[in-house]
Write a structure and sequence with these properties.
The complex is a heterodimer of chains A (about 625) and B (about 400). Chain A is built from 25 helices and 20 strands. Chain A has about 625 residues and is α+β, with helices and mostly antiparallel strands. Chain B is about 60% helix and about 5% strand. Classes of the chains: A alpha+beta (about 625), B mainly alpha (about 400).
Amino acid sequence: MKKLLSLALALVMLAGLAAVPAGAEELKELNTYETQARELETWNIHYSQAAADLNVLCNLIDGLLTNDNHGNLKLNAAKSYESPDGGKTWIFTINEGMTWFDKEGEVMADVKASDWATGLEWVLNYAKNDSYNVSMPAEMIVGANDYYEYTKNLTETEGAEAAKALDTSNEEFAKVGITVDDAAGTITYSLVDSLPYFPSVATYNCLYPLSADMIDEIGVDGYRDITWEDMWYSGAYTISYYEYQNQKVFTKSPNYWNDANCKRFDKVTVKMVESVATGYQLFKEGQLDHISLDQATLQDIYNGTADAEYKPNLVEARPTKYSYQMHLVYAKNLDDGVTPDVNWNTAVANENFRKSLYYGLDLTNYFARTNSINPLSCQNFCYTGNGVSFLSDGTDYTQLVRNELGLQYDSEKYARLNAEAAAEYKAKAMEELTAKGVTFPVQVEYYISGASTVAAETAKVLENIFRDCLGDDYVQLVTKTYTNLANEVRKPRKASFFINGWGADFADPINFLGQETYNDPQAYYSNNYSICNENDDPDLIAAYQEFTDLVVAAKAITDDMDARYAAFAKAEACMLNHALVIPCSYEVSWELTKVNNYSKVYSMYGMQAYRYVDWETSTEPYTTEQMAALAAAYAAE
Amino acid sequence: MVKYILKRLFRSVVTILLVVCIVFFLMRLMPTDYFFTEDELMKFTDQQKYAKLERLGVMSICPDCHGSGKLDSGEACQTCMAHSTTSVGTGYVDRSIFSQLGDFFYNLFEMRVYNAKGKEIKTIDPVNLWKYLGDTKVFEGKLKDGYQVKLAFNLGKSIRLEKGQYVTDVIANKMGVSMSIGLVSLIISLILGVVLGVLQARYKDGIFDHIGTGYTVLVNAVPHLVIYTIIMIGGAAIFSLPMRYDATAAEPWKTMVLPIVCLSIGSTAGYMLWTRRYMVDELNKDYIRLAKLKGLSDRKVMFRHVLKNAFVPLAQYLPYSILLTVGGSLLVERFFAVPGMGPELTNAISRYDLNLVQGIVLLYATMGIFGVFLGDLLMTIIDPRIKLTGKEGVR
């Protein structure tokens, strides 16, 4: 049997090797793109929370750890890491010979262990980093929250300049759980609790290094508004050219410490394009090496109505790290932004009403807006994203959740749809809510950007789904537009629901479920979107409390990861069974590419996915079959 | 004439100052929420918002409690209680809009010191310049070798679009790109437009005139984006021209061809239309009939008399058009990813990049006003009958 398995594995791997286009060579320079709407906003890696920034910056500065193409943790600036006490203390030892250099590659200083302390001080300092990226270290590292509060208090009592003048040598920072030894190259983090997933946090920017020498040179305000021309680099690439809304050119760093052990492009050019349609034209002209297709182009190629020669090269992309959810708003206001929308708030607090949405909405046509060939690739039944956490036997954590829910993905039909159950919940909801004075149809207000025609078309699809699946005697989806989401919609609470994608920052379900807990100031979605803390319906509160208690209990399990994940799965299933949030979709698009998607860093958490390191490429676009063979080989690894 | 020019110059400067002040006040009348990103708006505490507004010069640290919100006696500071939701002051007070305006003009005269490598090492208030130079080794009787002190014309730094970059640098970089494309396009369209317009007028109601009119109608009737798309795809497929601007390309001029063609298409039609119209007007005048009766050749009539007179109104807008090439084209530049001035103002307004908006408005106002002024002067040169001063025939 073993021989047979080995033979099968070898065959699959051979198929993978054979899948590299015949005669095609690897690309020495990569031409990629971003749409102009996704332009970088800051070069300060500690300050940024936006993917558009971090996708660039992760190439310019090396963190302690990174991910491989399977999402496993991989050593980077750290040459080793360990926990001597089962997860409460983590010791990272950094490589020798790492340097900071400027954009020309001129060495500015050595990378030292103390640079990680400088970076942490920056992140925790209220006056320096405006509380950006502070929540994870503040929650996890001993004394970190106290230091953050100290700098906040100092800012408020003595002014921002006093707090900005602090560095790692101050007494208060000495109480933070980080000790560094420059001679030995060790960084030791002391955590508030045993956190087995902490190394995954070390891939994220909140634990990135910062050179104290650079701060001495350019000052605190200089680093806050740092530009690519002044920043110090330590990563695989430097920026050799940047023109806002035009292009960024990454050039292989000449002094990169890890040159011998990684494969890099000589040059990566990120071209800003007005739309993916323009990008497609560039791909056709050979000016881009991959392009994600909009639905019109995809359909044209697929149906052979235009550019049919590309049909053999159509490749379904791997899902992005974002798990999209329909976040119901429990304390919505009317159009004036002040008066509570009692009708909606009463309806949404009713579990039968929520479940009628949960089971009744057939989102297939909605998925087709992202993936018209294979819409069910986008279906999502869980809150936590796929591939974030794995059990000791390699099972994905979300499989536990789906087991708890009794729901499995089906490539033929949208398995969550249960029209009968939805009709029952609808009937019950109408009866209960009529008694409470709710009038039907309940108006569901959905807001989209007024500038986006794509969003308008998608909203029309959603309107049809609501009408066709639940009936316009019951609910009526009304699409409205905004120019500024926060000011016009979120703050005045005018939407009935939002569709948001959450991408994890580290590899543990708490990073997802912790955003939804009840009466928790750290819960991002509870406080900023669903506003569940302000609805006083006892059943709703009880449901939220039950879920929150389960999350707290699961979070306390730190010695047995399988037990921890099983407990989280129960909590997540509880949230979904009460339909407090409705899982919606994944982003799975189609593309034409000269890049082996299975060779790229692939992580469903963190910020490492856009590192242009160790990519396998071809000068010819991969065919569908070649990519399928690569996928099979990858799965067999 | 000199007196008139000085008067117009003075009026132009006053108008520019007025425009700048109005925009300055309007931008600051907007709610301060627009200074923050969506994330910041939801996440920042009031204190953090005030701190950011202080960095942007919209608020200042309370002079009575020095930012603490409490007086030395321990009592709450009443000076900064205005926006406070607690029992102590915020530590920040609103800055008077006039004080902000004063700073804006004062900072224009900020000086910057650059070292021998051209790296900025210090910015100095103009009033402190001599003190600074005296205190440092930069200046020992004369500036150290290679060191330079320059007037910064500081319009502040971009706060969103190109965070941390001086507005003057952002504008200077983009202006050059827009101007290079705009000027070439202007020259092409002016030559083509005028020549074709003359031919249309010369052969009025002939086949050439009909084709020219058809072209003008077509260019104005078809949405520009459709025309640009056709040009982009056609240019790439037939002539292998790059579809987007790329200053780093081996032959950067090639990447400018399609944007220039797109820009020229519309303005050529404009020059054709107006040249034809002015020339036809002139052709119907008595002096032309007289010239023909006197036996002057058609060619002489057309070029010596008709074109010369018809060109006067076109010439008036020429300096204006040249100067406004710095403004770029929103559509063309966005379409071909040209890093020029075109989309900058709308981007800056939508992202509330206050300093950048202010800088661009200042530039556009200056160019616009001086463009009109120079146009008037040019007219008097081309047609000496036109007087800008005096009581009769004054424009």
